[in-house]
Structure formats: structure tokens, C-alpha cells
Write a structure and sequence with these properties.
This is Tetratricopeptide repeat protein 21B. One of its GO terms (biological process) is regulation of gene expression. Its main location: cytoplasm. The chain starts with a helix and ends with a helix. It is an all-alpha fold. The model is unreliable at about 600-610 and about 915-920 (pLDDT under 50). The protein is built from 69 helices and 2 strands. It is globular.
Length: about 1250
């Protein structure tokens, strides 16, 4: 490492506050380069900032007369003396006088290092004076320009930042300088041009491959670009170079926590981080505290993680017990752990250390609110309010105001306004931060979930009925939660809360999908099981509801203490008519400890199940309903009275009043019900629900439409908002008065112009009035405004219904006329447009254009499916169904055009989407195709699909019957390219590559079968024996054969043949061109020449950059890395693929990637992990010889010879007894398992085809015979 790079490294560590790193790097350089005053100064400076003041003074004294470091050394000595417990005033005065004297005659080096020292100390203005003077003295030296650029970049003033790039570029004209390049990358990062910054960092890595800060910067930039996979790959590279790299360990831990939700892995890595900190920066208090922040705020209050973060902050405080910020953070750590008394002690400690600490006072108020000390909290908040203007707005402070208002039962609108203000303040503070460690800290998902829980207190406790507009609060909650889940998808509580919000919004399917995602990752999540039970109950699925309750109980037996468990159980009993049992269950729930105390929570082992007032009141109300249904009005009235006494003066009291009104209605006393409801005033909670209930009574029981609407009009008058206007509009629609509804919806739209549901409702209301021309005008104006582009679909659909096909086509063509999109939602929208456009073309009887639109939809939908499996799991089932419908529609049009081959192809694909995507239900698909072939044996499109299905079902032995049927059907069969293609396919799958090639060759010139035949021929040429390309497990077993000259010449000939075949391919689609590029680069890799493999790797990387989850290209990258012996990088790409959902389009590449990853795991003796992958291969392809072969190898290694033989038998069977390696392994394991006759039989079969196969005669055949004789 040259001096320039060494100094850049030291400067980087100084700026990052890694002072022990500075000392270690300086020591290492001194040992390598010899005595150097600059390195001695850095070592002393590192000691000074690490807190070793006396040692630093001693070291600085020894170099203060060295001209190049004289100024910075004297400055550092003055700083050190001031930091001493007993400062030497005389020494400081003497040094100060000497500094002033020497400054007058200082040379450029002395000025430069003085400026550099002041910059590291954070005194930018003073540092700039020295840098300017140094530039002047030296006539514009490179070092001076670079320092000035860094000063401009880090001062935080926009006027200076603008100039930084000019100085960096000026310095770089003299050649690559690592410190200048690092600064230029930082400039682009500050400007939020992360791709540009990444280019510069890659340039640093190319020129200075051992410069660790460049890798750290690259890792952070990749995260800023939201590419977690590449971020983690760079972290792995960093750890290979520097096993204790703090940033890389932290990034891995964050990835486990935030991305994967794997708290045990994250906790283990966090433990490693603490050990690394103890070793590398044991006295760096700021670093200890800083490392804790992101984890504590993103861990969902996981106790394992919080124990580590508390340890980190405690260490920081132990090192600097006069630091109020550390004490405040310890208070927050205690709050997160639910230890309120301890939190209060730490906040008071912080106030003692710094009586002006606003964050400590905020913490004390938070504790007071939790403990119900409302008067004290209010008094303190008033004080903070007065000083808030000087300190600026704080989200935390606004939140405490909201909590206080809620606890004091202030008007809902006032609480909402405060909570909205909290979110506005909080999110505005995130502006400009890229995704990264600091963003996780600032986002503070834990705080956001607290806010959401407060909002949910005001949301209905039951899901919205079909057609009912859900509370706008729920929409607001969903928006915040989606931001959290997008950033921290591993935070299960956020996914759970999204499920809850979806459930309450009436979107039961979305709730189910999100809960399924939660429970897949954490099957013991009791609250998720409870909510899943409620979801099943809402779907009237009593059986699954009961199962969810049982699962919940099996994972957390203490859930019996939770009233909601009994509540749901009672609701299921009520649904099946077991009213008496439901009453018993609810009475049991009423006697639970948590039901008697409003603030109680039942403790479980290490966990607490929160029991809120909403759940408690639900138990009472459900019991009232059960008594009513059981014909016990008196008992129902007693429970209602108990509920009134229990919840009097709380927000939940109104729900009891509504239930009381329901009871009165059930007894026929409508008047009394209305009287009770009229007594509820605007200031009370649930006012909107009360008005909705009154309106419902007027319509259902009084049949009075006028009073029904009057309830909603009164709501609008008293609570004017987009939501109440929406309710009034819906009410008008319910009583068939669309004209009035339109007028109200338009008022609502003015209040909330970006609400898509409002715009859509207006359009539908206009259609209901048969005012089609106005509906069209409205839609067109909305689309033209650019705010309501999603209405293009509604407009085109309306025009189609009115048979105005040309206008409908024009609308959709305009909607589709845009630059290529990559956002998942935009891709989905384009698919919808294309499908509707196809319907319009179908109506216009232009079938060819309809098919083109559907094919474009199909290609887009393929991309949607791949992306959805990574980004939006809950959307996958619906998207699979849409894919099937698109294929079925293409098939229908092809049938109408009498293009039966094409029709069969797409019906088959539709069926695959329905069957193979969902259940791998091969049997049904096979039966369907057999039926088709019985009627038309020469339907080769169907036959080729059937061969693939039979292979996947492990039934290849059934294929010859269908080939024979085709031959008998016509004398021309043996001349048909389709027949030869199918025969080639069967032979290839059964281990006869040479015969397969002959048959594919006969199909290769055909317009229908040629392209696929050529692709298959290329694959056979490149891998005739179906080996795991890049795999190493079986690489040496056939070493003698593999390294023979004859074999090498054969491989070279095959590669040349494949190259010639590639020239015959003429793809017609974008995906076809990509497939061709991939095959070309597989040919390059087959040469095994390093330059060719690296060239292929670059191409695969380009494809993945353009399309992130392109499985064939990812597999290509992994294979190239394996050939280049870069196994960790290969493993990273393969692990990416292993996390994706299987699809039939990429089936072969999935299988190859799983096999290659299994190969890697076997090499490192991770047999369990390999076994899981091999089982996955066999689940999707029961004829996968290689999977059986690897399974046999694992069993053999574990000396389970009988099991090994069983797996090798399957590999031997499905490989058609042609692979000599498998034959050898099978015979060997038969020998070990004392099955001598079987061993001899297999040896004969191998030797018949491969008479010179090494060792089999001597090592197995002769031994087996000898054992038989004995």
C-alpha cells in the first residue's frame, strides 16, 4: 500500500471516528515503511481521540520539532493539555505563543497537515484558512485542492458543496488519487446520485483493490439503491478481506433482521459485532451507542436483540458516564423492554447530567403517561410547548400530546389532528435520507407502529360490510404500514398490523395473505393465529377457524388467558347453532383476570398478551347477543347493565349504547332505540357509527328514506370531510338517487382530488343514471388532468359497452403509449389494458390484433409473476389465475382460426398455470393430455407437453406407448418433424443424447419445431452427460476418462458444433434475444478458458442488472463463478434463486440451480441443507437422475449403504441404465450392503457398454464374486 493510499485510509478512519483503527493502521504502516513523522502524528492523534491523553502527549512531544507536522502537533498538544484532568496552563500558553510564531513561516506541508487536523476535529472554518493559504503558497497543489474540496463537501453549506466537485476534478487531472475519488463518490452521494457514486467507487476498487473503505462505501451505496442482494454480496467480500469489519458485520445483522425477519441469526451476528467492537474499538463510547440504534428500532421489541442493544448502550455509558445522551438512550432501551420504572431512573440521571435535555424530559413524560400520571405529564408538556418554538417541532413530543389527549378522552377529531401532525413531522424529518443504517434509525418503525396502534383504537372493531366505505383512518394506517413493510419486510408486527387493517377494511383476502406470510415465517405467532381465526370466521369457514384456534393454543398455551381466544371460540359456536356452549365460553372469558382490570395484561413466559378495552367490551356485547338468540332477554339486559357500569366514562361506552339499541330493536322497541342513540353527542367517540346505526334503523324499520339521508346530511354538517361526504353519496346510491349522489361525490372529490375510489364512484353513478355522454366526458376530463390515469380502464370499458370500439381502442393505446416501465404496479396496469384491448379487438372481429394484444399481455404477465413472487407475495395467486385466463383466451381465438396446434399449446399453458403452479398436480394434467392423444395421436404439440409432464411425474416408461400410437396412426409419421422432436425429447430425457441429437436434427429445419430443436441440440452438445456444470462433487470420480485427449477433443468439437447451431437461431421476441445471448455465453463457458468465462460472466451480469430476477442469467453467473473457483459468489447467486417461487417457464434453470447449490453444500458437508434442495428437485421432477445421484452420495458418505443403494437405483433407473458413474456407485453400495448378485449384475451392464470403465472390474466385480464363493 503506497503512502497516498495509506494516508487516505487514515483520513477515512479519522472521519468515521474509528480512532483505535487509526492507531492500528499507523502502527502497521510504521512497521512496514519505517519512521515517518506524519505516521507518528496520526498514531498520536489516534491515541488522543481514543482517550489515551498522557500517551498522546508523550508521542506528540517527540515530533513537535519536525517541520512538516510542527503546526498540527502543537495544535494537538494544546488540545491534549486542555483534555487532561489537570491542564498545564503554562505549557498551553507556551505552545500557543510558539504556534503563532511558527504559523508565520510555515511551509506548505505544515499548513496542509494543520488544516487536515482541524478538519478532523470538526473546525471547518479554521481548517479552510490553512487550506487556502497552503494552496496559495504551493501554487495550487493537488493535496490542498483535495482538502479544500472535502471541507466544502462536509461543511453542510450548499454554496460550498457546489464547488467541491470542481476541486476534486481539478486534482484528478494529475492522475488517480484515492482520496479525491472517495470525495467525488461522496459528492455524488450527497447529491443523491447513487449510481454515479457507485461508478466512482468501482473505479477505486479497480485501481486500489485492497482499499477497504471503497468496499464499505460500495456496500452502503448498493443499499441506497435498494439492492439488498448486491449489498450482502459486497458485505461477504468485505469479510473475506477483513473478517472483523464492523460495517460488514452490522450490515449482515441488519439484513437478517430487517429483510429476513430472522431474529436468531440477527442476534448471533449482533453478538459477533459486540465481540469485534471489544477487540477493535474497546474505548469508543460513541461507536458502541451508535451501533445499537438501528437494531433497537427495527427489532419489533424482540428481547434477544434488545439485550444486545442494551449491552451496547450500557458499555457506552460505562465509558462516558457524564454523557446525558447515553443515559437518555438507556431510558429508551428500558421503555422498549417494558421496564418503565428503570426507564424513569435513567431519564432522571440524564436530566441530572444535563438539565436542558429535551429528549430526557420527553422520556420522563412518556413514562408518566404509561403510568397514568396525567396531571404531571400535562404540566411538563405545557413547559415543553413554551420552548418548542426555539427547539423546533418533534414527532415524539407531538405523539405525547396525542396520547395525553386520548387518555383525557378529548374529541376524536382533536386526537386525529395531533396524530396526523406526528406523522407529518416524522416523515418530513426523513426527507433526503437514502436507505441505510441512518434511515432505519430515523424511520424508527417501532415508533410508527405505536402511532398506528393509537389510530386503531378509534377504528371499528368489526370488519366493514360489503359495499360499506371503510373508515378513512384504516386507509391512512395502511399507507404508513406499507412504507414500514417495504423498508423492513422482516418486521412481523408490521405485516400483522397490515393484515388487521385489511381485515377491518373488509378486504378479507388480503388479510388472509398477509397472515399466511406471517405464520409461514413464525408459526408460533399467537396473535396472528387469533386474527387468522377471525378471518376464517368472516369467510364462514368454521373448520379452519377452529384449526387456527387449536394451533394458537398449541404454540402458546397461555392464550387461554386472552378474552379474544374465547370470543372467537364463542362466535364459532354461535355460527353452528351451539348458543348455550357459546354462552358458557363467554362467561368463562368474563371471569379472566384481564377482564376485571382495564389496564391489566396477562403475563406469559417472557411475553405479555395485551388486552385492550375494545376486546373486553366485545366479550360483553357478544354475550348479550348470545343471550338474545337463546331467548333470554332478561339475562341480556343484565349483561348490558354490567357493561354500562364497567365502561361508563370510556370511549367504549358508546358501543354498549349501540348494543343496547340493538337489543331494544330485537324486542320491537324502535322508538327507545332511537332515543338512546339521539343522546350521543358530537364530542363523544363513535359518533359516526351511531349516526350510521340510526340511518340503518330509519331505512330498515321505519322505511323512511328522508330521515335515512338526513342522518348522513347531519354528519356532513357537523363533521365536514371527504369521508362523511362519501357516506352521504353512498346513502343516496343505496336509495337509488344517483343524481344527488353525483353532486355529493363531486364535493368529496374537491376535498380529496387524489382519491381513486371517489373518481370511480362518480363515473359509476353517472352510468347508473344512463347519462353515458356525461360519464364519458367526466372520465375524459379526469384522464386529461393527469391525476386520474387509472380511470383509462373504466373509460375504455364504458366505451366498449356502448360499442364505441374505435374510441375505446384509442384510449387504451394512449394509456399504453409510454416508455418501458419497471414498477410492478405499472406492469400489472399494462396487462389489464392489453387484456381489455384484446376484448375490444375481439368485438371488432379483428382476431389477429386480439391475439397480438394477448401475447403482449402474456409476456408482461410473465414478468409480473416473477416480480410478484419477490415483491408482493400476497398478489401471486390472483396473478397466476390471470396468466391462465390470458393463455386460455389465446387458445380460444386460435381454435376459431382453426389453428389447433397453437390452441393446444396455449390451453396446455393455461392448464399448467392452473395445475402446476398451484399443486404440482401432474396426474390431472396427464389424464387430460392422454384423452386428447387417444383422439388424435399425431397431435405433436400435445405429445411434447405430455412427455414433459410424464418426466416430471416419474413415468417416462409410459412414453413409448404414445410414440407407438403416433407411428401406427399414419404411414407419414416418420417423416413428420413434430414426431422426431418428440422422439428426441424422450431419448434425451432417458440418457440417450446421441440418438436424441439424430432425431432433433430431423426437426431442425421445420418452421414450427426448428427453433426448439436447435436449442435442445445446443444443450446436448454443451452437456451430453447431463452433468452439474460447475459442480465439483462428481468432478474427480471420472478423472481418468475426463482428462483423456480423446475426451478433450470431443468437447472442443461439441462446442464448435454448438457455435454453428447458434447461427441458425432467429428469435422474434425480446425474451428470445435474451435466451440467445445466454446460450452464446454458455458456449463461451464450455471452453473453460478464463477470459471466455469472464466475458460470459460480464454478459450475465448485464442481463441481471436490466432484469433483477432473471433466473437463467443468475444461474449463468453462478456457473461462471464456480468455473472461476469463486464459490462464495456462486453460492450467493444460487441462494437468491432458492428463495424465489418456482414457475414452469424457468423450471429447468430452477432445477439446475438447486442441484448446483446442493453440490456446494455437499462439498462443505452441509448434508441437511443439500438434502432439502434435492427433495425440492424431486418434488418438481420425479425423474431427476442427478438429485437421486447426489442423495445416494450423501447416504454413502454417511455410511448408510442400503439407503445409498436405493437412491442410486432410482438414478440408474431414470437414466435408463446408461451412466457408468451411477452404475459404479450402485454396484459399490450393493457390495457394501452384501447384495453381491445385484452388484455383479450391474457391473456386467456397465462393462457391456463401457468395457474399459476404470476400476469396476477389479474393485467391485472380482470382490463380489469372491464374497459369493466364500
Amino acid at each position: 500500500m503506497d503512502a497516498e493510499v495509506q494516508q487516505a485510509l487514515l483520513n477515512y478512519y479519522c472521519q468515521e471516528g474509528l480512532f483505535q483503527h487509526v492507531r492500528a493502521a499507523a502502527d502497521e504502516a510504521l512497521a512496514r515503511l519505517g519512521v515517518d513523522p506524519v505516521l507518528l502524528f496520526y498514531r498520536a492523534y489516534g491515541a488522543l481521540r481514543a482517550g489515551d491523553v498522557q500517551e498522546s502527549i508523550r508521542q506528540l512531544e517527540s515530533i513537535k520539532n519536525k517541520p512538516e507536522v510542527s503546526l498540527c502537533t502543537m495544535m494537538a498538544l494544546i488540545y491534549a493539555h486542555k483534555k487532561s484532568p489537570n491542564p498545564d496552563r503554562d505549557a498551553i500558553l507556551e505552545l500557543d505563543a510558539r504556534l503563532k510564531e511558527q504559523r508565520k513561516t510555515a511551509g506548505q506541508q505544515a499548513l496542509y497537515y494543520a488544516g487536515l487536523f482541524l478538519w478532523h476535529l470538526g473546525r471547518e472554518d479554521k481548517a479552510r484558512e490553512y487550506a487556502d493559504r497552503m494552496i496559495k503558497v504551493s501554487g495550487g497543489s493537488k493535496e490542498g485542492l483535495i482538502l479544500k474540496a472535502w471541507l466544502d463537501l462536509t461543511c453542510g453549506k450548499e454554496t460550498h458543496i457546489k464547488k467541491a466537485l470542481k476541486y476534486f476534478d481539478e486534482a484528478l487531472q494529475e492522475g488517480n488519487d484515492v482520496f479525491a475519488l472517495l470525495g467525488k463518490a461522496q459528492y455524488f452521494e450527497v447529491r443523491q446520485k447513487y449510481s454515479g457514486a457507485l461508478e466512482i467507487v468501482n473505479q477505486i476498487i479497480a485501481n486500489f483493490p485492497n482499499f477497504i473503505p471503497a468496499f464499505i462505501k460500495k456496500m452502503k451505496l448498493q443499499l441506497a439503491l435498494q439492492d439488498w442482494e448486491q449489498t450482502i454480496e459486497t458485505a461477504h467480500r468485505l469479510l473475506q478481506k477483513d473478517p472483523l469489519n464492523l460495517e460488514a458485520i452490522r450490515m449482515e445483522a441488519l439484513h437478517h433482521l430487517c429483510r429476513g425477519g430472522n431474529t436468531s441469526e440477527a442476534s448471533a451476528r449482533l453478538g459477533d459485532l459486540i465481540k469485534a467492537l471489544d477487540r477493535l474499538e474497546p474505548r469508543n463510547s460513541d461507536l458502541f451507542c451508535k451501533m445499537a440504534l438501528a437494531f433497537s428500532r427495527t427489532c419489533g421489541r424482540n428481547q434477544l436483540i434488545l439485550q444486545h442493544t442494551q449491552t451496547l448502550v450500557q458499555r457506552a455509558f460505562d465509558l462516558a458516564s457524564d454523557n446525558a445522551e447515553f443515559a437518555t438512550e438507556l431510558g429508551y432501551q428500558m421503555i422498549l423492554q417494558g421496564k418503565v420504572n428503570e426507564a424513569q431512573k435513567w431519564y432522571k440521571t440524564a436530566m441530572t447530567l444535563d438539565e436542558t435535555s429535551v429528549s430526557a424530559l420527553t422520556g420522563i413524560i412518556h413514562c408518566q403517561l404509561i403510568q397514568g400520571q396525567l396531571e404531571d405529564a400535562e404540566h411538563q408538556l405545557e413547559f415543553l410547548n413554551e420552548i418548542q418554538q426555539s427547539i423546533g417541532k418533534s414527532g415524539e413530543l407531538s405523539f405525547l400530546h396525542a396520547v395525553l389527549a386520548m387518555k383525557k378522552h378529548k374529541r376524536q377529531e382533536d386526537v386525529f389532528a395531533l396524530l396526523n401532525d406526528v406523522l407529518d413531522t416524522h416523515f418530513s424529518s426523513l426527507h433526503g435520507f437514502p436507505l441505510g443504517v441512518e434511515y432505519f434509525e430515523k424511520l424508527n418503525p417501532d415508533f410508527l407502529l405505536e402511532i398506528i396502534r393509537e389510530y386503531l383504537n378509534f377504528c371499528p372493531s368489526q370488519p366493514a360490510s360489503p359495499g360499506q366505505s371503510p373508515s378513512p383512518l384504516l386507509k391512512h394506517c395502511a399507507s404508513v404500514l406499507e412504507t414500514v413493510v417495504k423498508t423492513v419486510p422482516g418486521l412481523q408486527q408490521a405485516v400483522f398490523l397490515i393484515a388487521k387493517v385489511k381485515y377491518l377494511s373488509g378486504d378479507i383476502e388480503a388479510a388472509h395473505r398477509n397472515l399466511h406470510y406471517c405464520l409461514e415465517r413464525n408459526p408460533s405467532y399467537a396473535d396472528a393465529h387469533l386474527l387468522m381465526a377471525q378471518v376464517y370466521l368472516a369467510q364462514n369457514n368454521i373448520k379452519l377457524c377452529s384449526q387456527s384456534l387449536e394451533l394458537c393454543l398449541s404454540h402458546n398455551f397461555e392464550v387461554r388467558e386472552h378474552p379474544v381466544y374465547h370470543l372467537i371460540k364463542a362466535q364459532t359456536q354461535k355460527k353452528v347453532g351451539e348458543i348455550a356452549e357459546a354462552i358458557k365460553t363467554l362467561q368463562m372469558a368474563r371471569n379472566l383476570p384481564g377482564m376485571r382490570k382495564p389496564t391489566a395484561s396477562s403475563k406469559t413466559k417472557g411475553k405479555s398478551i395485551e388486552i385492550d378495552a375494545s376486546d373486553r367490551v366485545s366479550v360483553f356485547l357478544e354475550l348479550v347477543e348470545a343471550h338474545r338468540l337463546n331467548g333470554e332477554p332478561h339475562e341480556a339486559a343484565i349483561v348490558i347493565q354490567d357493561a354500562m357500569n364497567e365502561f361508563s366514562g370510556t370511549p367504549e361506552e358508546i358501543r354498549v349504547v349501540i348494543a343496547n339499541a340493538d337489543l331494544a330493536i330485537a324486542q320491537g322497541d324502535v322508538k327507545h332505540a332511537l332515543t338512546m342513540l339521539r343522546n350521543i353527542t358530537l364530542e363523544q367517540p363513535y359518533f359516526v357509527q351511531v349516526k350510521e346505526k340510526m340511518a340503518d334503523i330509519y331505512l330498515q324499520y321505519r322505511k323512511d328514506k328522508k330521515l335515512y339521508v338526513a342522518c348522513y346530511s347531519d354528519l356532513v354538517e357537523k363533521l365536514p370531510s371527504a369521508h362523511t361526504l362519501l357516506l352521504l353519496g353512498d346513502a343516496y346510491m343505496n336509495i337509488q338517487e344517483p343524481d344527488e349522489a353525483i353532486e355529493v361525490y363531486e364535493q368529496a372529490l374537491k376535498k380529496n382530488p387524489k382519491d381513486p375510489s371517489l373518481a370511480s364512484k362518480i363515473g359509476k353513478a353517472l352510468i347508473k343514471t344512463h347519462n353515458y355522454s356525461k360519464a364519458i366526458s367526466y372520465y375524459e376530463a379526469a384522464v386529461r388532468s393527469g391525476q386520474q390515469n387509472f380511470l383509462c380502464y373504466d373509460l375504455a370499458e364504458l366505451l366498449m359497452k356502448l360499442k364505441q370500439y374505435e374510441q375505446a381502442e384509442k384510449v387504451l393505446q394512449q394509456a399504453l403509449d409510454h416508455e418501458p416501465v419497471n414498477e410492478l404496479s405499472s406492469l400489472m396496469e399494462d396487462v389489464r389494458y392489453q387484456v381489455l384491448l384484446a376484448k375490444i379487438y375481439s368485438k371488432m372481429e379483428t382476431i389477429d390484433r386480439a391475439i397480438v394484444s394477448l401475447q403482449q399481455a402474456r409476456e408482461l404477465q410473465g414478468r409480473v409473476l416473477k416480480r410478484a413472487q419477490v415483491e408482493q407475495l400476497d398478489a401471486v395467486p390472483a396473478q397466476k389465475q390471470l396468466a391462465a385466463e390470458i393463455c386460455a383466451e389465446i387458445a380460444k381465438h386460435s381454435t376459431a382460426q382453426r389453428n389447433y396446434e397453437k390452441a393446444i399449446k396455449f390451453y396446455k399453458e393455461a392448464l399448467v398455470h392452473y395445475l402446476m403452479f398451484r399443486k404440482q398436480d401432474y396426474e390431472q394434467a396427464i389424464f387430460y393430455f392422454q384423452q386428447l392423444l387417444e383422439r388424435k395421436p399425431d397431435n405433436y404439440a400435445t405429445l411434447s407437453r405430455l412427455i414433459d409432464l410424464l418426466r416430471r411425474a416419474g413415468k417416462l416408461e409410459e412414453v413409448p406407448r404414445f410414440l407407438s400410437m403416433a407411428e401406427k396412426h399414419s404411414s407419414r409419421t416418420k417423416l413428420e418433424p413434430g414426431f422426431h422432436y418428440c422422439k428426441g425429447l424422450y431419448l434425451w430425457y432417458t440418457g440417450e443424447p446421441n440418438d436424441a441429437l439424430r432425431h432433433f436434427n430431423k426437426a431442425r429445419k421445420d418452421s414450427d419445431w426448428g427453433q426448439n430443436a436447435v436449442y435442445n441440440m445446443i444443450e446436448i452438445c454443451l452437456n451430453p452427460d447431463n452433468e452439474t456444470v460447475g459442480g465439483e462433487v462428481f468432478e474427480n470420480l471420472d478423472a481418468d476418462i475426463g482428462n483423456s485427449t480423446e475426451k478433450q477433443e470431443s468437447v472442443q468439437l461439441a462446442v464448435r458444433t454448438a457455435g454453428n447451431l447458434l447461427k441458425e437461431l432467429k428469435p422474434q421476441t425480446i425474451q428470445g434475444h435474451i435466451q440467445l445471448r445466454i446460450m452464446e455465453n454458455y458456449c463461451l463457458m464450455a471452453t473453460k478458458q478464463k477470459s471466455s468465462v469472464e466475458q460470459a460472466l460480464n454478459t450475465f451480469t448485464e442481463i441481471v442488472v436490466a432484469e433483477k430476477d432473471h433466473i437463467p442469467a443468475l444461474l449463468g453467473m453462478a456457473t461462471a463463478y464456480m468455473i472461476l473457483k469463486q464459490t462464495p459468489r456462486a453460492r450467493n447467486q444460487l441462494k437468491r434463486i432458492s428463495k424465489m417461487s418456482w414457475n414452469p417457464i424457468d423450471a429447468e434453470d430452477f432445477e439446475k440451480s438447486w442441484l448446483l447449490l446442493a453440490d456446494i453444500y455437499i462439498q462443505s458437508a452441509k448434508y441437511d441443507m443439500a438434502g432439502e434442495l434435492l427433495k425440492r428437485c424431486l418434488r418438481y421432477n420425479r425423474s431427476c437422475c442427478k438429485a437421486y445421484e447426489y442423495m445416494g452420495y450423501i447416504m454413502e458418505k454417511e455410511q448408510a449403504y442400503k439407503d445409498a443403494a436405493m437412491n442410486y437405483e432410482m438414478a440408474w433407473k431414470y437414466g435408463n441404465q446408461t451412466n457408468p458413474t451411477v452404475g459404479y456407485r450402485l454396484a459399490f453400495n450393493y457390495l457394501k450392503g452384501k447384495r453381491y448378485v445385484d452388484a455383479i449384475d450391474v457391473c456386467h451392464k456397465v462393462l457391456k457398454v463401457h468395457p474399459n470403465y476404470p476400476k469396476i472390474r477389479k474393485e467391485i466385480l472380482d470382490k463380489a464374486r469372491a464374497c459369493l464363493r466364500n
